[in-house]
Amino acid sequence: MIKRRQLLTAGALGSAGLVAGCECGVPSSGAAIPGSIRSRELKMVTTWPKDFPGLGTMAERTAQFITEMSGGALTVRIFSAGELVGAFESFDAVSNGAADLYHGAEYYWVGKSPAFAFFTAVPFGMTANEIMAWTEFGGGQELWDELAAPFNIKPFAAGNTGHQMAGWYKREINSIEDLRGMKIRMPGLGGDVLQRVGAAAVSLSGGEIYQALQSGAIDGTEWVGPWNDLAFGFYREAKYYYWPGFHEPGAQLSVGVNLGVWDELNLQEKSIIEGACHRANHLSIAEYIHHNATALDQLVNDHGVQLRQMPDDVMAALARESKIVLEETAEISDIAKRIFESYKTSLEKSQAWSRISDEAYMNIRRNVFSL
């Protein structure tokens, strides 16, 4: 009986030790136990305006998760666009070590390589669920790592806005002719497609858009969707709100970690950062679906916004040019070609499944059911 009690006591103490070890703190002596989390402050730069709903708060939430999951050992100091560097300078700041992480959209870095756009959104490409599937299980993450490594970056998905709107326009679009000559804010490969149909694509950070629309520097703009567009007040400057967005059917946002910093982290610290990004990604999809629905109702019923569907012939013309843009992008480099082929294969598989799952169900629900 004594021996049995001794064994049970020893087992209980061992279990307590395991639980204590999971608190992941730094020992009082200050010496890090192998595998434990070491105290460190990380600097995060973002491409978003400070405290901006969804986008800015997504970065803040990711930082918060890192701190909470590390038991306070890892803290993240956030610099919104313009506070430490400009929005479009975030990539270089992390690449050269001036900052440790960025939160942004990969298609802002197409000047480094057009292939970065595949990891945010491409015209007529993947939805939020599809790009998540490709990134996590279809080989996308490995190709993304390979693309970013020469720039000293380790990337992760850390948010998604879901399907975006086609944007705000000061005059109606009834044919492809109406787009010709228009100055439209649209970054990434979507902007390249607009150029091919005769529009002038302009790349502006979020904080620059309203003034450009107000001054007439641009004739139209896409940004995100009802929630974020309402926050910027675009309805005060442009009357027509068009759907659907061809350019960003599921815009994936990202965290990029300086590769030197990443390599210094132990497995536990890396797992915390990766887990925080995954958690932020998951919550953002739910958040955008919820808030977009509410904001759309406000835009239409409180502010008199006129919703317009892009004409079929306009969408068909944009689709034709999108295919050319994507194929040309694939020919830029070997890595771009391999990313395109992987993306294309995953999209084809996703489409075959969604045709008899989500698409079929939503069509039936719309036609035969209501609460």
From TrEMBL:
Q: Which PROSITE patterns match?
A: PROKAR_LIPOPROTEIN, TAT
- What protein am I looking at? TRAP transporter substrate-binding protein
Please tell me the species this chain comes from. Hyphococcus lacteus
InterPro entries xrefs: DctP_fam, SBP_TakP-like, TAT_signal, TRAP_DctP_sf
Give the CDD domains listed for this entry: PBP2_TRAP_ketoacid_lactate_like (cd13604)
Q: Which keywords has UniProt assigned to this entry?
A: Signal
Among Pfam families, the record links this protein to: DctP
UniProt-listed PANTHER family = EXTRACYTOPLASMIC SOLUTE RECEPTOR PROTEIN, PTHR33376
The organism's place on the tree of life at top rank: Bacteria
